[in-house]
Structures are given as structure tokens and as C-alpha cells.
Records
---
Amino acid sequence: MNESTDRTGDTHSAPDEGDPVLAGYRRSIDNIDAALIHILAERFRITQAVGEYKAKTSLPPADPGREQNQIARLRALAEEAQLDPEFSEKFLRFIIDEVIRHHEKARSR
């Protein structure tokens, strides 16, 4: 029997057991989640290099103008992709805040 544990720690049988359609959807979701992790890892490798460069050249860790432009650009892309632009902005803001934190850390070394 295929079991999983939910957020509360309770163990449940996997509801897709015996349901090939649901199992297929879940495999696709798992693949997309793995791709997202790899994409985020690459993005943070690049932004870490940017933070080190900014620290060496005495540039500020944050660039509010670029951040606003990126948020506007990605909100528009989200709308085109039929993704909630509020969600996309929150997601991007979370990433930007983490990048700035890394840049500040690089600057203090």
C-alpha cells in the first residue's frame, strides 16, 4: 500500500493508488516541482555572483528601480499566462527579499 504523511503527521493511503489519471497528473507535478528547484538553484547561483560583484564595487545590495520594473514585467507575464499576478508578485517579492539578504551578507564580509 502506498502511504503518505500530511502536514499534521497523519498517515494516509495515497488516493491515486489505482487511479492512473491522478497518478499521471501527480508525476507531472513532481517533475515540474523538481524543475522549479533546479531553476531556483541556478537563479540563486547567479544572484550570489551579482552580490559578490556589488560588494566588490561598493554598489548597494538593493536596486528598487530594477525591482519595480521586474515586478511590473512579471505581473504582465503572469496575466498573459493566466496566472494570478498577485501570487506572482508575492512569489517574486519573496525571492527578491532573499537575494537582497544574501547581497547584504556578501557586503558585510
---
Amino acid sequence: MDVRTLLLKQWASCLDKEDWFPPLEKVLENITLEQAIWTPVEGEHSIWELVCHLLFYEKRILLRFLGETANEPKAENNDATYRLPTETFQNWKETKQEYFSVHRELEKILAKSELEDLYRPIPDDNPLVLELKSLAMHNAYHIGQIVFLSKMQGAWAGKRSF
């Protein structure tokens, strides 16, 4: 199996293909606004904050790869990447849709790029192949947190397909 195929499998498992952990699209499917903003204790991140954090890093890598660094999201530190927009149902829906869109765009780039493009360093970072590998692991970690928060609220399906 080549590196592109391996990464495509990892990337899909983070969004819409069930593997050893549930994909984010499925995890977020029935999460309400109230569940999205809930935290177990003050100072911990909510589901929505975690999705914003994932979106920040994926969007940054996408725009850097496209050479659009002027448009990339900015944050003064990692904590700022969890910042929410105004807490409305519409904004929750838009955050999810933007995340899904950016994730799929990175998947398309991965699928159609020549290997030399995947190994070309992107501004301020490693080659895309290394960034996507790291992002897939980062996503899996935070998807686990989102599942846990969902379970704490009783929003997790009792039966899964695996």
C-alpha cells in the first residue's frame, strides 16, 4: 500500500468511514446546539469548541497548501483555536458544514496530488503528507473526546454497527 492510499484511508476514517473509531460526521449527526455547547465542568471544552479547534488546523493546512497564507485563520495561541462564534443553531450547523467541506477538500487534494506535491514543504510547515498524517491522529484523539462528551450527555447511541 502506498502512502497516499494509507493516508486516504486514515483521512476517510476521521470523517465518514467507520473504522476502529466512529467517524466525526456520524458522531455529530444528532448533536443538538445544547449538547454542542455543554461542558462537564467549567474550563473544559465543549463538543463545538473541539470542532472549531479541528477546523482551525485543517483550514490552516489547506490554505497554506493552496498558497493562500494571507487568508489562513490566525490565533494568538492554541487556546484561541477553540473559540466559538455566536452560539446559535445556525452557526453550529455552519461550523459543522465548514469542517466537513475543508476536510473533503483536503481529501481531494490528497487523492489527486502527485507524490512530489505531497512531499513539497508547505509554508511554515512540513510536507503535506506529514501534516495530514499528524492531523488524522489529532482528529482521532479529539473525536474520542467528542464521543466521551456525547456519552456523558446520554446522546450516544446504545448500539453501534461494530
